[in-house]
Amino acid sequence: MHKKVIICDLDGTLMNDERTIPEKNIQMIEDLWKEGYAFGLASGRPLDELMPKQQMWNLSRPFDVIIGMNGAELWDGFHQKEHSYFLMKKEWLKETLAIMHQWPCNPFIYLNHKIYAVKDDDLMRRSAERSFKELVIVDSLEELYAQENAKILFRVNLEDMPKIEQYVKEHPNPNYVGYKTQPTLFEFSDKRIAKAYAMHKFCEYNNLSNQDIVAFGDTTNDIELLKYCGTGVCMCNGSPDALAVADVISDVDNNHAGVADYVYKKILKKC
To answer: 224-236 burial string, b = 16+ CB within 10 Å, else e?
Structure first.
């Protein structure tokens, strides 16, 4: 059995602000494997976008665990099995579009290895290019809630994010939750879904204790994962709510391989 499982968020954590991974973090993953640790990713991105990171980063082996879509998807590398959980119902997706109509935004979903969005802009084109997905511009909003989905995303203006977070906090829904995943990205998913839920299922499938997990994250959608795992490390560049719940705050930010800095100092003890 592996000594521990190290699970990392991507944007703002394992990757820098330019959406690339520092070389030191790549070497850290290999060094963890050499020492008998398991390593995985936990992201709001879908599994089909996360699994190819092994080849993109020239890693020597596949990831041991991958949590996608903020916990709606799980790849258990120990058993070579994919799991999916709680999708947003069509009527819920429609409701979120009505909620977000109050602010300028670009709604989009992931579906069938494509990105379906309302507006064609530079941000959406770059996102599609980075994820190797086709960008499809919908003819009507109904296409975004034509079938159940793990989540719906909204690209918003930076200055509107505090108002959106406050509104959603003041108007809780019994079925789904909304949360910030990037400074200009707000998402809705089934209330039962969280990265921590998928991590719990992974532990259950593999007879692991949550105390065997070290998690790294930086923002709101990482909070439950940081709280659930034995050690929750928030990046020093993290959002105030994530910083508040962390067991540890990294000494170095995501732009300077802060995950590797912590791992080498505290886990591998090579510094």
So the answer is: bbbebbebbbbbb
Residue 265 tokens read as: 């100092």
Q: Is residue 271 scored above 70 in pLDDT?
A: no
The CATH number of the structural domain formed by 90-190 is: 3.30.1240.10
| One-letter amino acid of 217 | G
- Sketch the domain layout of the chain as residue ranges: 5-85+193-267, 90-190
How would you list the strands of the sheet with 114-117, edge to edge?
Answer: 134-137, 114-117, 105-111, 151-156, 185-190, 176-182
Q: Count Cβ atoms within 10 A of the Cβ of residue 95 and give its class: 0-12 exposed, 13-18 middle, 19 or more buried.
A: middle
Does the predicted TM-score (pTM) go above 0.90?
no
Q: Is 74 exposed, middle or buried (0-12, 13-18, 19+ CB in 10 A)?
A: buried
What distance in Å separates the CA atoms of residue 52 and residue 75, rounded to the nearest whole number?
Answer: 13
Q: Residue range 150-176: average pLDDT?
A: 97
CB 39 within 8 A of CB 62: no
- The answer to whether the beta carbons of residues 142 and 118 sit under 8 Å apart is no
Crossing angle between the packed helical segments 90-100 and 161-170, to the nearest 10 degrees: 130
Within 10 Å of residue 89's Cβ, how many Cβ atoms?
A: 16
10 pLDDT higher than 90: yes
Helices H / strands E in the chain, number of each: 10, 14
Class of domain 5-85+193-267: alpha beta
User: Is 153:185 a contact under the CB 8 Å cutoff?
Assistant: yes
Percent of the chain with pLDDT over 90: 94
